[in-house]
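ok so for the tutorial part 2 we go from a plain amino acid sequence to predicted structure tokens. step 1 is just haveing the sequence, like this:
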Amino acid sequence: MTFSVIIPAYNAETTLGACLDACLAQTRPADEVMVVDDGSADGTARIAAARGVHCIRQHNSGPAAARNCGARETRGDVLVFTDADCVPARTWLEELAAGFDEGVGAVGGTYALGNPESWLARMVHAEIAERHASLGDEVDFLGSFNVAYRREAFDRVGGFDESFRAASAEDNDLAYRLDDAGYALRFRHKACVAHIHPTRLGAYLVAQMRHGIWRVKLYRKHPGRVRRGDRYAGLGDLAAAPLALLCVAWVGAAGACAVLGWSVWPAVTAAMALGGVVTGLHVPMAVAMVRRTGEARMGLFAAMGVLRALARGVGLAGGCWRFVIRGGGA
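step 2 — the prediction. this is what the tokens look like for a chain of 330 residues:
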């Protein structure tokens, strides 16, 4: 089989060089490497050209469209994707290739931490590492930051849905369609790319709000997944965001009761109960993260998880307005 590595990039001049250097130094060399510049305003294309990597430029259309563009313009039997802010390990492509048994439609891998000096980045990574460690070889979701699709399977299900304009949920959607079409999805724990995780809480929560927005579109398209989640994120993960939003609603109700001179305790009790449930949903992961890292501060994930659930809940509300009430497709 031949392997084409495709890297969607948008204003990625500060990270793309390291990504390309790693892609060009694989123990199993790629048959071709391509960058799709999604309308960058910086030197992204220049970084690719300096390394002799073919770069296609398109108007800014989002990562899903950029990946599809790369798929059309490459020739490999297998389409391999990573992100411009990822640095693949030397054996990355070799490990992905080893997963393609007969009937396998896609193979994916995991993250290494690219900025361990940041406490927030370590916390974000510790959760991902714990989730990935719990996965078996067969999965029903693979992230587009580190994934290889058999071209025949990719084409059969229609590639990425370009109506997912943001970098959120488009990889879930494609994985679910491959899974529904009967293709096996494999997870290779040794197929690894280093990634720079968020270092500022505000930026992280904004990204989580975007996550909530696009989950509405995802679950409108795949309603059965609302009832069962996937092997990466289960029902507790799905429930946390709406429960956090309900908690805030009860806090608002308590304020309204106070203004009207009514008893606030029923609303306060409901808010406290919901807050306790949302916190409790994150405690097992917090404990696992402390055990994995040896850092007691990782226990604060239980609190950060509440903030994240609230950000996602706000996103869910926005997504319902955008995709359900207004009926927007993108």
